[in-house]
Amino acid sequence: MQQEYKSKSYTHLVYVLLLFIAAGVGTYYAVPMLQTDAVRAMMPEMMREMYPQKMGEFGHYRGDAVMDEVNRPIRNGTNASCLVCHPYIREMHLEGVHKTVSCEFCHGPAADHVKDGNLIGDLPKKQGEEIKTLCLRCHNQIIRARPKESIKMISMPQHLEEKKVRIDHNCNQCHNVHAPLMWVNQAKAIVGAGEGSK
Questions:
Q1: Is the pTM of this model over 0.70?
Q2: What are the pLDDT digits (tens) for 133-181?
Q3: Which of 52, 55, 62, 135 could form a disulfide with 171 if both were Cys (CB 3.0 to 4.6 A apart)?
């Protein structure tokens, strides 16, 4: 009885895999060789113009990319750079629970506001529903913006209903955005409720 021939269906995959490995190894060894001036001189002129001069200086990277990053204009600042010119906000911000929140998180990059110590433009100031949207980026319990309960999480409009205020209120009608508990604690002190009470 003649044995039945069975083809191995994965053979073509092995050939393709070997081809990719060979191409990868060839590229790995070919790219450093292309860095030599002799090889570059043998390239057609059009190809030489397209091939970056510093290619391969730091492995398989274009050496000039480092200087490109160094020379990129700085867009962002620190809270300290903002609070130098905003002393009233500084006082509230550094004493409030938002002291670790970057000014730029809410207001945008410092480079749009100040350049070389001079005012060049006003940063957008959130108004109305934009404030609620901004606050809920971190405090929205429904979306679970934080993996752990590290900050106060709320659900809207339930939070407003619990506090017995109109459900169309914005966050900044009860909370100072730079020091969210400041007005709340002041109101509690006025009615004699104390800071720790609900």
A1: no
A2: 888 888 888 876 666 777 888 888 899 999 898 988 899 888 988 888 8
A3: 135
In whole angstroms, give the CA distance from residue 87 to residue 67: 37
In contact, 138 and 106? CB cutoff 8 Å: no
Q: Do 64 and 72 contact (CB within 8 A), yes or no? A: no
The CATH number of domain 74-125 is 1.25.40:
no
Ranges for all domains in the chain classified under CATH 1.10.287: 74-125
